[in-house]
Task: structure prediction
Amino acid sequence: MKFLSQVSAALALFGAASAIPAEEPPLLQARAALQQVTGFGANPSNTKMYIYVPDKLAESPAIIVAIHYCTGTAQQYYSGSPYARLADTKGFIVIYPESPYSGTCWDVSSKAALTHNGTGDSNSIANMVYYTLDKYGGDPTKVFVTGSSSGAMMTNVMAATYPELFAAGIAYSGVPAGCFVSSSGGTDAWNNSCATGQSRTTAAAWGQVVLDMYPGYEGERPKMQIYHGSADTTLAAPNYNETIKQWCGVFGYDDTAPESAAANTPQSGYTTYTYGDHLVGIYANGVGHTVPIRGDDDMKFFGL
Ligand SMILES: *[C@@H]1O[C@H](CO)[C@@H](O)[C@H](O)[C@H]1NC(C)=O
Ligand SMILES: *[C@@H]1O[C@H](CO)[C@@H](O)[C@H](O)[C@H]1NC(C)=O
Ligand SMILES: *[C@@H]1O[C@H](CO)[C@@H](O)[C@H](O)[C@H]1NC(C)=O
Result:
């Protein structure tokens, strides 16, 4: 009896709920996990595919392709970016591709990668999207791409090589599509003149680089949002202007005359430039590499 009363005293002390088994659900629900997908279709560059499918999947879900930075992994971008958390509330699917190379930067330098159906990483990533649309009955009008650094370079490359696949892209601190091209055709090559901001040309010339990645394509193209920091010492700040010029060249906008420039938007020190309904640039004064991801703003740009 004495023992039992001690037990009840202890139960009172620690709270009854902890001692009552079963009926009540645990406070922390286990949520869906990141999963690797093999056999998603042709994978010419051996890129790995990881996917996050939330427990509460929307009917005809949207798909976001979220692409990691150099030295990164799918797992790191899954845990370090807000997209899986947002997927839990909004019901979209996130595809996290993983680069197959030892430094785990993306191949944004070879002709294969810089060509529609060209058998590079871009081709493998596009096939991940086709697989996901098919398997989960995804909404083909709501496929988006985003990434940071090397993943931002790949975002521009995906938008250029697969314009029919994506409704919008958001690049955090990248370079124009084709800026990292390797003159010797190298795969996954570093391009110093681009990284240091020396690769500069006109809007028309940059735009042509995009058009040449999918010759003959005349359909819709994704709307783009370009973030870059003025204090970026990895992919120097002129890459902001060059990327803006590139998409201005594609869409026929005047890169010297944005429709609007909003200071201290979306936060102090950032300026938001709108060039037309398909292009927004956000230049972050004093920010280095990379501009932090703005998940809620991304949802607005994607219309999710
Ligand atoms: C690219 O490949 C896809 C999938 O195999 C195919 O459906 C499409 O027609 C190809 N594009 C062109 C322009 O050949
Ligand atoms: C680096 O890229 C530029 C275009 O941005 C290109 O003209 C140049 O040939 C590339 N450099 C190398 C070493 O491949
Ligand atoms: C970008 O272009 C604008 C207008 O031509 C110029 O004022 C600005 O200094 C440029 N920024 C960079 C980082 O090159």
